[in-house]
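batch job 7 of whatever, protein = Phage uncharacterized protein, putative
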Amino acid sequence: MGNYEFSAQYLQEPLASSGGYFEQDYFKSVFLHELGQLNTYIFVDNAMSLKESADNRAVVVVGVENYKDSARYCVLDCFCGIWSEEDTIKHILQAKAQYTEAKTYIESDGGGFILHRLLLVELVKFNQRAKEQHKAPLNDSIFCYTPSRKVSKVEKIKAMRPYYNTGFLVFSHACQNIEQLQKELFSFNPDRPFKQDDCIDALASCINHPEVKAPFKALEPTRSVFKPRPSWRV
């Protein structure tokens, strides 16, 4: 039981349904046809414990596009639940099958190294079956990374607010579990962090990661303003 739940149960302090840090008025949804060219990423928030009774696992799919001379982040999909490692791997492979170009990032904390190794084994099996069925294999762009110790989880989530408030963090109408994302966003309180923040934690990790970028924007050719000087005809 966390401090927040302890306060609610034993100190009779109610759990806040709205943290007020992310205001509902700024929540923006978009249709997929409104988006431009995307680089797509899958970020995995693994449970801190390997036990099935631990906190939620979350798999968040984020597309990044060039938008108004900056990068805009769109949450394309979200999978979350109290899963075993086997179920977590199934959901990651499902996301990779649906978003074939996506690169996958797994945080090393909370058994991430083990999950990464097991996922690679299952990816080989999945691709072998795909080969036998004459189907395209899934990409092997799967990375296990160690998060920066200089930035806490709460600070990472707080750093999303400028993107959220200005429309540079949006959510697809087709995104699954959008209610869970909204619940975590609207109840987030940096002074009283709540345990159920797995989805927005994965999202914050994505936005904070240095390798997450919008597609390279080619420079548009500029028309020359040079005009030939008039000369005498000979």
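notes: The mean pLDDT is 87.
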